[in-house]
Amino acid sequence: MALHPQEHIIYWRVPSNIALVKYWGKHGVQLPQNPSLSFTLRQSYTDMQILYRPSESGNRTIDFYFEGKPNEKFKAKIVQFLESLPDDFAFTKGLQLTIKSLNSFPHSAGIASSASSMGALAMCLATLAQKQGVFLGSPEQALQKASNWARLASGSACRSVYGGYTVWGATHELPGSSDLFAIPLETQQVHPYFATFCDTILIISGEEKAVSSRAGHALMNGHPFATVRYEQARRNLSRLLDVLKNGDIEDFIQIVENEALTLHGLMMNSNPSFILMKPATLAVIEELRTFRRDTGIPLTFTLDAGPNIHLLYPLAYQVEIHAFITDRLVRYCQENRYIHDGVGTGPQLFN
Fold first, then answer.
1. Do 299 and 163 share a domain, yes or no?
2. Of all helices (H) and strands (E), which one includes residue 108?
């Protein structure tokens, strides 16, 4: 379809991310109770286009389409977000915005669609600001602004603005780290062993989660183990930063599995409590640990706030682990569904 003569287009592809040290619990306006560490995925992303031109009414108007169909629920979320920061988004006044979005991965796949979608929205808005003559500073400062906007839209989205391994939350181990935006780890901070890590997501269940992430975070308010958890997360982050640098896979496995199971333990002993794992989730974990013990292959896992499992492993063992998935694990997947993914390089601008 041809563009209107006054219409322009911005097109970003922004991946989701998977947290290794979990962010669970927040305060203030989308501020984390503890720092988190994730890596950005490669194949699991949101493509977003913003078509913009002067509106006929002189007011800002928005149309939103997800996978080619109008989506009023998400449109309302975008409108609310823009209206929550009137000064930041003054450059959108008087524009007609048509936003088109689609995901490379299915809904409820255990992949954070809000991270990739809100990350994509933030990147599109940062580009639009610059095209409208708003100076966002140096390229690094412009990315921090986009990360800050993404955080305000959906906490973990701030980490998707960068590729590779990313930390969100102030920690004395990383100068420049902040609760307001994420920062990427530098190349020298990540051992080559981890730079090409693989992630196969097993779709145990495509059902909607029993509790939203927003409600799950709220359950940490007054949780009897909250303070201990936040201290644990900070210790694990400090340890994992060292592990990523020195390539110690045994410590990596211990930290990452501990973080995943702690997240689910917190949900199980919250009030009200939620069991987010399925019987098949536990069966896969048992199969995985038996395989690791019997073969010596360093296969590990993490979990988001749901039943689906991210299998994490070095690229060097891809053939053996793909065979293990096919032979032993696919039977636990809903409709035999799984997604091969891994550490990615971050957002891409297509125009």
1. no
2. none
Q: Which residues of 286-318 are buried (b: 16+ CB within 10 A; e: fewer)?
A: eebeebbeeeeebbbbbbbbbbbbbbbbbeeee
What is the tens place of the pLDDT at every residue in 37-93? 999 999 999 999 999 999 999 899 999 999 999 999 999 999 999 999 999 999 999
What SS3 string covers 279-345? HHHHHHHHHHHHHHHHHCCCCEEEECCCCCEEEEECHHHHHHHHHHHHHHHHHHCHHHCEEEEEECC
Rounded to whole angstroms, the Cα distance separating 102 from 215 reads 25
Q: Are 203 and 334 found together in one domain?
A: yes
Q: Shortest CA distance to 329 belongs to which of 297, 282, 294, 296? A: 282
Return the structure tokens found at 303: 């979990």
Its pTM stands at 0.95
- 3-state SS class at 19: strand
Contacts 24+ apart (CB under 8 A), 250-257: 250/298, 252/194, 252/298, 252/300, 253/298, 253/300, 255/20, 255/21, 256/20, 256/300, 256/301, 256/302, 256/312, 257/300, 257/301, 257/302
Q: Are strands 36-54 and 165-168 parallel, antiparallel or unpaired?
A: antiparallel
315-325 pLDDT tens trace: 999 999 999 99
- Is 311's pLDDT higher than 90? yes
Query: Rounded CA gap, 97 and 9, in Å?
Result: 10
- Shared domain for 111 and 257, answered yes or no, is no
**Is 26 among the domain residues?**
yes
- Mean per-residue pLDDT for 254-267? 97
pLDDT digits (tens, 9 = 90+) for 143-178: 999 999 999 999 999 999 999 999 999 999 999 999
What total of structural domains would you count in the chain? Answer: 2
Asked whether residue 62 falls in the same domain as residue 166, the answer is yes
How much is the pLDDT for 188? Answer: 95
> What does the pLDDT read at residue 3?
61
Q: How does strand 338-342 pair with strand 198-202?
A: antiparallel
Indicate the pairing of strand 61-66 with strand 95-103.
Answer: parallel
Residues 126 and 240 in one domain: no
